Amino acid sequence: xxxxxxxxxxxxxxxxxxxxxxxxxxxxxxxxxxxxxxxxxxxxxxxxxxxxxxxxxxxxxxxxxxxxxxxxxxx
Length: 75
Known about the structure:
There is one protein chain. The protein is globular and about 35 Å long. Helix 2 (14-28) packs across helix 3 (42-49). Helices cover 51% and strands 0% of the residues. The protein has helices at residues 2-7, 14-28, 42-49, 63-71. It has one domain (1-72). The chain is an all-alpha fold. Its EC number is 2.7.4.3. It comes from Cephalotus follicularis.
């Protein structure tokens, strides 16, 4: 499912992404985790996992800066 959706350029359903994150967090054995770029799925993550973040950090930048960063990924 994940490979197919990625090949088709589709975004994974929040539920799938959250399950993967939760599994990775549990398997890490760490007490704390840092999740980057998950703002839009935060409410779903909290509802599904019953985990409330102790700290949330937002960085705001212009649309021009976001586009520049996106286009320069993997280079």
